[in-house]
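Deviation from plan, reported transparently: adenine complex.
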Amino acid sequence: MSVDEIYIKANIKAVHDWPKEGVVFRDITPLLQQPKPFRMVIDALTQRYINHEIDRIAAIDSRGFLIGSVLAYNLNKPLILVRKKDKLPPPVISESYELEYGTATVEIQKGSCNKGDKVLIIDDIIATGGTMMAASTLLKSQGAEIMEAAAIIDLPDLNGSTRLQNLGIGVYSLCAFEDEN
Ligand SMILES: O=P(O)(O)OC[C@H]1O[C@H](OP(=O)(O)OP(=O)(O)O)[C@H](O)[C@@H]1O
Ligand SMILES: Nc1ncnc2[nH]cnc12
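Because the crystal trials were delayed, the predicted structure below was used instead.
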């Protein structure tokens, strides 16, 4: 593990049995409350993508907005909002999916991207990968190519990153929590 990874992980809190029994919720609030680890996250993602060919950044509602919007500003790229159901004005397209602790629907506005656009998807965490997959389905339906799906945290035990990779979507995360500790 790199020094940055150790530091980022140390600023993410494990909340056991929330929002339901058996779930270990990875809370990024401590990381956001301190400039140093938050800057580490943004700087690491900026460095990774600064020389990549990216046309747009898609950030996922709501924790993904916190990272995706700052990254879009740093990289000077247009931002696409992947929002929870009924938040965006029409015309929208929708995709439903399973979460670790429920079900959800995400939407993007029609015309959010152009055919052939290379889109980087950003969220705080990849758990089952359902949210990233739904976002990718919506973006692809508009003709986009998914350049990569990136998050602060990967939970490999929930297989989300593997499921995304099996669909041909490249995945990048800054840290992983391998078990329930
Ligand atoms: O890989 P998955 O199993 O799809 O889970 C990851 C998603 O779950 C959380 O979002 P949540 O729906 O809890 O919303 P929030 O960001 O508004 O808290 C998280 O922010 C990711 O978007
Ligand atoms: N274990 C978890 N911690 C934080 N956010 C999540 N989203 C889905 N699973 C999660």
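Residues 35-49 form the longest helix (15 residues). We consider this an acceptable substitute for the interim report.
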